[in-house]
Design goal:
There is one protein chain. This protein is α/β, with parallel strands linked by helices. A six-stranded mixed sheet has the order 4-3-2-1-5-6, sandwiched between helices. Helix 3 crosses helix 4. It is globular. A hairpin with a 4-residue loop joins strand 2 and strand 3. It contains five helices and six strands. The protein is 38% helix and 25% strand.
C-alpha cells in the first residue's frame, strides 16, 4: 500500500490588530504556534506573510471564522473570509474556513495555566488560538478527504 504524502498547513487566527499563526502537518494532526503578525485594521505586512510561507511551504491555509454563537457569520468572519481570499490570490494555495468559536477564550485559559499574566495586549495568545483552530480542523473527519488525497470536499 502506498503511503499518502504528509500535508503541511498554515493556520491564521484573523484579527484587526494581531493575526495568530500556526503550522501543522497531517500525519500527526498536530500544530505549533508561530510568532504572530501585527496588523493594521486587519491588514498584515504582506512581506512578513510571504517570508513565513517561503520558510514553511504550506500546502494550504486554514483561516479561523469568528462565527456568532448561533453559527451565523459576523462582520469579522466576513473580513476573515476576505483575508483567506487574499491568501489564495497572492499565493495560489487553497484555503479552508474553520469554525473558531471560543478559540480565543480557550487559548486564554490555556495560557493562564502556563503562567500568562493576563496582559494580552503586550503578550497576545492569537497564535495559541491558531494552533487550536488548526488542530481542530485537521482532526475533524469531514476534512480527512482533503488531508489524505487533496480531493474536493462535497
Amino acid at each position: 500500500m502506498k503511503a499518502e504524502p504528509a500535508r503541511t498547513l498554515m493556520a491564521f487566527d484573523y484579527g484587526t490588530r494581531n493575526i495568530g499563526v500556526a503550522i501543522g502537518q497531517s500525519v500527526t494532526g498536530t500544530a505549533t504556534a508561530l510568532p504572530g503578525l501585527k496588523a493594521r485594521d486587519g491588514i498584515p505586512d504582506w512581506q512578513q506573510v510571504t517570508r513565513l510561507i517561503e520558510e514553511w511551504q504550506p500546502d494550504a491555509f486554514v483561516v479561523g471564522m469568528p462565527l456568532n454563537m448561533d453559527g451565523t457569520e459576523s462582520e469579522m468572519s466576513q473580513r476573515a473570509r476576505k483575508f483567506g481570499n487574499r491568501l489564495y490570490g497572492r499565493f495560489g494555495k487553497a484555503w479552508h474556513a474553520a469554525d473558531e468559536r471560543l478559540s480565543t477564550y480557550e487559548a486564554k485559559e490555556w495560557a493562564g495555566r502556563l503562567g500568562h499574566t493576563g496582559s494580552y495586549g503586550d503578550n497576545p495568545v492569537d497564535s495559541m488560538a491558531a494552533q487550536m483552530i488548526l488542530e481542530s480542523w485537521m482532526n475533524d473527519p469531514a476534512n480527512a478527504c482533503w488531508l489524505i488525497r487533496e480531493t474536493p470536499r462535497p
